[in-house]
Amino acid sequence: MDSKFVYLDNNATTQVAPEVWQIMSESQQLFGNASSMHGFGRASAMAISKARGQVASIIDAKREEIYFTSGATESNNIVFNIATNIIDKNNGKGRILTSTIEHPSIIESVKYLKTKGYKIDLIDVDSTNRLDIDDFKRKIDNDVVLVSVMSANNETGTVQPIEEISKIAHEYGALFHTDATQSIGKIDISMEKMKIDYLSLSAHKFYGPKGIGALAAKKGVPLNNLFHGGHQEQGFRPGTYNNFSIIGLGKASELAEKDLLKERDLLWKMREALRIGILEKIDDVVVNGNQKYCLPGTLNVSFPRAEGESILLYLDMEGIAVSTGSACATGSLEPSYVLLAGGLDIEIAHGSIRFSFGRFNTMEDVDYVLEKLPPIISRIREMSTR
Predict the structure, then answer these.
(1) Rounded average pLDDT over 106-127
(2) pLDDT of residue 230
(3) Does the active-site annotation cover 294?
(4) Where are the domains of the chain?
(5) Under CATH, which number does the domain 6-15+260-384 receive?
(6) Which of 82, 120, 247, 327 qualifies as a FRET site for 106, CA 20 to 30 Å off?
(7) Mean pLDDT of the chain
(8) Measuring CA to CA, which residue among 354, 174, 384, 381 is closest to residue 283?
(9) HSE on the CB side for 336, CA within 13 Å?
(10) CA 312 → CA 306, 351, 385, distances in Å?
(11) Which one of the listed residues 221, 328, 340, 370 is annotated catalytic?
(12) Are 102 and 150 in contact (CB under 8 A)?
């Protein structure tokens, strides 16, 4: 009997939805440069405008507040560039606050900017990876120009109290940014209600094409372009529009908004079935992250005395795709800095696996993992004691 194939790495990337492929295929005639004044250009411009509105709708923003980028990594870097530009204009006065569990695109930006002399402080998290509000209050003051905290962690799925964090940031006159990449299509995100100044997202995290995303910037907040050469995106991010990918992002946003409640319930049901099944079938496991404030489709589990990379490879041989952490950190033999930030023992962190569900998964997938995973853990643990 051939192995079943189960994809449980949706936090790394998702497959493109059929409806997205369809509209991108149907848009082949929209090859015109959207900046051109002739009919071909106007048709492309109209399609891009529609997509901009679709993206704005899912995050409760205004159409003119959406700027297309290559994805959240670029958007995150742009926001930190804006913050350092503000500091430069203040003759070096100003600080940035972010958390210890951000995506590598922010963590690595922090490391780089510190070498350039910028003052950046990291806010601690508790044992469930939720932001330590008391530590945040200790570290923020009127010198802080930007607070950046992801809406939900890509490894543990822990959801942050964004509205509370934003409120505190604004009380001190700081701008607030959130990397909402993992949240779109899974939980409610509102630029208006949560008082978010900047928001980053990537299409490929919610069944859209890769290489396209957006930065949402509330009207009136500072913006400074990284590039020069054109008027596109209000001069903020010039360059000829990627028509097809933008249209795909728009459609993915529309679908994610329409199916939010249904998808959230489905993902939570599968996630809980797997969590309960693992606890019933395997001894000595640690479920990481916050179990109350959590993305519906993310389950991070540590298996003491079993190496994470070994578990991943054995599962892969059974046709099951999972992750040991962030896809952007793959290649590193170091344990997850996200898990270590929450105080998890280094040896336990080494045995962590992230299961992340998507809309194309089924309960049969859960059953298959629960069939294959227990003997794999037993085998690895037996080998480790020899």
Answers:
(1) 97
(2) 78
(3) no
(4) 6-15+260-384, 18-258
(5) 3.90.1150.10
(6) 247
(7) 94
(8) 381
(9) 35
(10) 11, 10, 19
(11) 328
(12) yes
pLDDT of residue 158: 98
Q: Nearest 5 degrees, angle CA 337-CA 340-CA 343?
A: 155
Whether residue 259 is predicted with pLDDT greater than 80 in this model: the reply is: yes
3-state SS class at 201: strand
C-beta atoms surrounding 324 within 10 Å: 24
For residues 384 and 50, give the distance between their C-alpha atoms in angstroms, rounded to a whole number.
56
Contact 30, 243 (CB under 8 A): yes
332 pLDDT band, cuts 50/70/90, is low
Neighbour count for residue 82 (Cβ, 10 Å):
24
Q: Integer distance in angstroms from the first to the last C-alpha of the chain? A: 32
Task: Report the candidate in 106, 159, 125 with the shortest Cα–Cα distance to residue 295.
Answer: 159
Scanning the structure block, which residue is given the tokens 């405008």? 49
DSSP string of 95-157, one letter each residue: EEEEETT--HHHHHHHHHHHHTT-EEEEEPB-TTS-B-HHHHHHH--TTEEEEE--SB-TTT-
Print the SS3 string covering 281-328.
HCCCCEEECCCCCECCCEEEEECCCCCHHHHHHHHHHCCEECECCCHH
Question: Is the distance from CB of 192 to CB of 162 less than 8 angstroms?
Answer: no
Residue 233 confidence (pLDDT): 78
Listed residue (383, 309, 382) closest to 352, CA to CA = 309
Q: What CATH number does the domain located at 18-258 have?
A: 3.40.640.10
